[in-house]
Amino acid sequence: MSETSETETKETPPAPSPASELEAQLAAAKQEAAANYDRYARAVADLENFRKRTLREKEELRLFAASGLMEDVIPILDNLALGLAAARQQTEGKAIVDGVGLVLEQFKSTLARHGLKELNPAGEQFDPNFHECISHQPSPDVAEEKVMQVVRPGYTLNGRLLRPASVIVSSGPAKAAAT
Question: Among residues 125, 34, 112, 39, which one has the least CA distance to residue 77?
């Protein structure tokens, strides 16, 4: 009989206790809850980032939606200003010159209300981010790397450069020729 009792103990594993089974289920449930909470927190953060990005893109679209129109209008401003400058050189037609000048100023102020700003950097330090140097000229009156003359004004739309100002930059006083 002793053989039978030995085989019985070897063959049948001990039955798990109900408490250890419950503890295992509780640990598995806690692990699943932590994973679900992590996914939830990530989804909330992604949604918040999406909301912020959408608002930022919407505001940028609002600010720069008219950039194509403004780029097309800038040459008209240039031509109107050139025509006005030529008309001012004439002695006749002062009333017409004054009228066109008022229209030009009204046109500029209307565009300025929509974010278009004229860059007229005469006397300022040359900045390649906003100015296009078309020439360097020596000048005893203007310091080196300062804008001497604005050939064509530049424009920005709500802080974004649409066209750089074309300028002539001083190279400082003329250097004496080597003898």
Answer: 112
Residues 6+ apart with CB under 8 A from 164: 119, 130, 131, 132, 154
Strand partners, 137: 170
Q: State both tokens at 18.
A: 């109900």
CB of 162 closer than 8 Å to CB of 71: yes
Cβ burial of 131 (10 Å; 0-12, 13-18, 19+) is buried
- pLDDT grade for 66, boundaries at 50, 70 and 90: confident
* 146, β-bridge pairs: 125
pTM attached to this predicted model:
0.62
Length of the chain: 179
Give the CA distances from residue 37 to residues 26, 29, 41, 47, in Å, rounded to whole numbers and listed in that order. Answer: 16, 12, 6, 15
